[in-house]
Design a protein that fits this description.
about 85% helix
């Protein structure tokens, strides 16, 4: 499967996801407004942390070693070990969510009335963890068509389920939908993978393999770092905006992040589906450099064109995705989109740290640049207001890109 073929298939799934997300976001903005969108953003960031912990943060490791190992005996050890890790970790997270539901509701969502959302999350999170394991194996097996089709079904289900709950329950409905969506999709994923040649129940009942546990542990350390640093930095910045500017301003910032996430999904999906397995299997440095250069030739021009298009039609984008209440977002587009281009340029190199299990340097850079983003954001908010967050975003990723270039030259040239 080539980058272009993978990109085309990923693009199809992404189109469905973007369209459904736009519809959901439109309904959400109509029913809850900017401040409600900020609350949804808070829960999304918290969920990102919890769901990563729920399967031991081994997703990228499953993809890598499923792609790298050539015999079913080796893969069985990864499959079985990953299932046991996921079940154990999701149980711990469930207990945590049950026990601290009221405290978390007050801390994250600023209102104890949402505590039932965390209880429902605790009840369903093990299904999310199992779904993540199966999807990671599909990715590693490079069964892209099945992977894409499951994502399309997931998007369609999310559209109807989330829209219904928002219309019926407003903000509460949106929060319930967030914590349940991906767990229900587990049953869809299971229906697809049971027909795969690599899926046999006994492959997942081999117990814990110590060697596999150590290897997956390296990826766990990296993923847990990302799960803690990136969403946590967003939680801190959004909370700072809400308390020092307004929660409507926090909603505008959430809105611009949403637009960035949606259009960049076309690119980031291809990176996760194609690049990680591909870079994992390449051992020759010359071939790695050639693959990276190919990525820059294909992906970066696409990002630049998309970013320019979003900027030129930013007012229309706001009207389509949100409502007129979100028009103050207009000033945030320029530097946010510049930062997006720099971000993808740096990620093309950054994926090498995952593919080659460069655990220590990955952890250092994730912590460093997440802390720096918070510091820059708070500093620039004080100096320039809400637009300062986009200055911080662009500058932070520019410095990150420089760091990635230095690592790449030292390690792969």
């Amino acid at each position: 499967m080539t980058l272009i073929k993978t990109s085309v298939l990923s693009f199809i799934a992404t189109v469905f996801k973007v369209i459904t997300a736009f519809v959901i976001n439109k309904i959400l903005s109509m029913y809850v407004g900017p401040s409600g969108l900020a609350v949804v953003g808070q829960l999304q960031n918290f969920m990102s942390i919890m769901t990563t912990f729920s399967n031991g943060a081994i997703t990228q490791g499953i993809v890598k070693y499923t792609a790298e190992y050539q015999t079913i005996e080796q893969r069985q050890k990864i499959f079985s070990t990953s299932i046991i890790i996921s079940l154990a970790c999701s149980l711990i997270i469930s207990i945590f969510l049950f026990g601290f539901s009221k405290y978390l509701s007050e801390l994250i969502l600023k209102d104890v009335q949402y505590s039932s959302v965390f209880i429902v999350f605790g009840l369903t999170i093990f299904l999310f963890a199992l779904n993540t394991v199966l999807m990671s194996i599909l990715n590693g097996q490079i069964e892209i068509k099945k992977y894409v089709f499951v994502n399309i079904i997931s998007s369609m289900f999310s559209l109807f389920f989330t829209s219904f709950l928002i219309i019926q329950l407003n903000l509460m409905g949106a929060l319930y939908a967030l914590v349940v969506n991906q767990s229900v999709i587990f049953f869809v994923t299971l229906g697809f993978v049971v027909k795969s040649s690599w899926f046999k129940l006994e492959y997942f009942k081999q117990g814990v393999d110590k060697e596999s546990l150590v290897k997956l542990g390296k990826y766990s350390a990296m993923a847990l770092t990302s799960a803690m640093t990136v969403p946590l930095s967003h939680l801190i910045v959004r909370n700072y905006i809400g308390e020092n500017l307004s929660w409507d301003d926090a909603g505008y910032w959430q809105g611009i992040w949403y637009i960035s996430t949606m259009y960049l999904m076309i690119v980031t999906t291809s990176l996760s589906v194609y690049y990680l397995p591909r870079l994992s299997e390449i051992q020759d440095n010359k071939e790695i450099r050639r693959e990276i250069l190919n990525g820059y030739k294909i992906i970066l021009p696409i990002v630049i064109v998309l970013a320019l298009g979003i900027y030129l039609f930013r007012e229309i984008a706001i009207e389509i995705a949100f409502t007129e209440k979100f028009m103050p977002m207009m000033e945030l587009f320029a530097w946010q989109l510049i930062g997006d281009v720099i971000k993808i340029a740096s990620w093309l190199l950054g994926y090498l740290m995952l593919a080659k299990a460069m655990t220590r340097i990955f952890i250092y850079t994730e912590i460093l640049f997440s802390v720096l983003f918070v510091i820059l954001s708070i500093t620039f908010i004080e100096m320039f207001g809400l637009i300062g967050t986009t200055y911080a975003f662009s500058l932070n990723y520019f410095l990150y890109l420089i760091m990635m270039i230095c690592i790449f030259r030292k390690r792969f040239e």
